[in-house]
Predict the 3D structure of the following.
Amino acid sequence: MKFFSGFCLANEQELFTPYLNQSDFTVAGFSYGAIKAFEYAFTCKERIDTLQLFSPAFFGDKNAKFKKLQTLSFSKNSDLYTQNFMQNCVYPSTFDIRPFFKQGSIEELSELLHYTWDEAHLQALKERGINIEVYVGEQDTIINSLHVKDFFVPYASVYYLKRVGHILK
């Protein structure tokens, strides 16, 4: 299994053990890492059976002002921005995510905020026989989980998990 980490995180795949397909032919990613996993799966020439996207970073429903404010806030005080981000990642749980913390960059934040999920690429993966699974939490405060669910339904099996947030706990 190949796993891609989320923004400001490293080696957090153990958080998703209840859902992770441990097969050698699985590609998975969390949040920002879901973008990286998707891009990898689309360009990879090796066998992939399953693509698992956990709380995929999805900001297509946000306007330019929101995205600019996020970037400015990070630029102004990355420590405070990151602290708030991590709190929002674990909400509504009280899970300690600090052991997985890795400082993110303004370039990564900008990339995830402005990323556009390509529906033609999703369809192409589906046509290649890749099983796409998307997991979103009902109480996610980072992304609009209902919007994400609706977007991915034509291409993936979407698991909408009640009473959990971005880290699905």
Q: What stands out?
A: The beta strands are 2-4, 26-30, 50-54, 131-137, 157-161. The chain has a mean pLDDT of 97.
